[in-house]
Fold this protein.
Amino acid sequence: MNRRVKFACLLLLAIGLVFSPNADAQKKSATSSKQKPAAKIDDAALKNADARTGEWITHGRNYAETRFSPLKQISNANVKDLGLAWTFDTQTDRGLEATPIIVDGVMYTTGSWSIVFAIDARTGKQLWKWDPKVPHAAGAKACCDVVNRGVAVYKGRVYVGTLDGRLAALDAATGAPLWQVVTVDQTKPYTITAAPRVVKGKVLIGNGGGEYGMRGYFSAYDAVTGKMAWRFYTVPGDPNEVVPAAMKPAMEKAAKTWSGEWWKVGGGGTVWDSMAYDPELDLLYVGVGNGSPWNQHVRSPGGGDNLYLSSILAVRPDTGALVWHYQTTPGDTWDFTATQHIVLADLTINGRQRKVLMQAPKNGFFYVLDRATGELISAEAYVTVTWAKGVDKKTGRPIEAPGVRFKDGPAIIQPGPLGGHNWQPMSFNPQTGLVYIPAQETIFGYTQQKNFKFDKNGKWNTGVDFALVKDPPTALPTGHLLAWDPVAQKERWRVPYIVMWNGGTLTTAGNLVFQGTADGRFVAYSADKGTKLWEVTVGTGVIASPVTYEIDGTQYVSIMVGWGGAFALTGGSLGLPTTPGRLLTFALNGKQQLPIIAAKPPAAPTAIELKASAEVIGKGGDLFARSCAVCHGIAALGGGGVLPDLRYSSPATFNSYQKIVLNGSLASEGMPGFKQTLTAEDVDAIRAYVVNRRNELAVKK
């Protein structure tokens, strides 16, 4: 294996890189006609979500996003008796990341392509389905698969963000759309994959697109009418733009920390996931993403902190006015987002009870902040960190190691762009005092991209060249379920993973932690010691987070099962079968059997005649890395079993590359044309590269 391919193989494990609606016929009311489903989920209910012990009414179970359930019918003593109660087939075959919501005996969840389902939480019977009919060509604008992380419910409505940038309100009883608003410029590569949140009658939603050169923001919409109440831009725009009065102080402060003409390349800072809310302080906490381009030297040539990239923002939900911010990675140049799960808790620290905010962002440090003021209380590395020596307790800034900004040469650092922790939610158990983190040990080599030119037509704009590291790392990334003590800032126990990139966590009063794994298992551990107590094979990889609820005296545990997402698309197949996504629900003494489909390895491809020169093949490899690897895998090693492995394409497909890649003949199937960014000569070079990779495989076989 040559050096470039060897490095690509290492990278695929270290970084997951890429690239009028209607209700269905089944519109049955989930409850009696006397009570509209989810009608009682109002501001008071959301504020006191913990009191509704048998339900799961908001994304993180409560505004604090703890993902802790007080239910304990299922406990460390009897979890071994857990069995399958029912299943639901989503009929979608891409990644499933949703956290289901359970209200009034109804489960609301989403599949890939932003499709919404209402399901009887007792039986798994579909009550209704709403398909937003997202154009499949929009998948090319999604950095990390066509996933969706779930819905919000409020006053008889179900809210969902769609991949193509809409926010929709649906009738909770029927799934009929009540209103829809477009929250982004749909001519640009914006996407929505996050679950909305509802705070004080407003629906909050952000978006993704930072890798493509988009400017980040999050917005608040009236829950009844869909009218936008306010919008907060996370990075400053063109200095000549008019800024609303409420946002002006924040934008003026931010602009002083940028240089050059950053607004012409987007800036980044997309808010693509985490939010939390403290009703007592009336503060909404929002995690902000990476810079665009990643490379600060081309984004903001004069340096600077580049506010509010990689920051936690505390804003007033009524107006969007900024109260405080804390920046985890000033002047981010490594894709170190702070969009990872935010958890609120009250902890006793040094004999004093503190209202804290906790986050384990990509950069590898676990932060504990005073959530009233943003003051840093503590920060320690929860995974291996080489880019910084620690966090200065006085300034709150990381102490960077020399040479990590890769201006004058390559820098190989830990964590890599996939982070020490990614989007998969962590959970906090107040009984054990521990946070349970899907932690990752990743490594990556950063190198300046020569002659960087911003591409506004849907290409990744990182400013980093992934192929030019002279001496690639030899360590492979790993991962583990990490039990972290946020007071002592120490690890209490860990369970190693077989494969990196696993599901989020759920913890319960039954002294349990639940988690799905990339290698196709659903596992329960004791929350205090990490002892494995129960395990079931689910047949395909799991990246979503479990939930638990209780109906008629029976406690259930549910999880969405469907392999996909960023790492899957670029990391190659794990050898698991590609099966339709499922929702699996377990209960004590459940008796159902889950059919497991065995993976069938593809037949060895035959070699195809290739007359291209080494120079053309090399050019094709560079083009593939920048235009194709985001969906079809680094070094053309396949789309993780999610999308086709191009090396196994039919001869007819190879003969149709111009029609497919250039002209978009398969756009309706999610493969758009690249006429705006590639030439016919480019496509021929890409074809030559993929054929060469196929032939290497054929020889190997």
Notes: The two ends are 14 Å apart (CA to CA). The longest helix spans residues 680-700. The domain at 3-588 is CATH 2.140.10.10 (Methanol Dehydrogenase; Chain A). The mean pLDDT is 89.
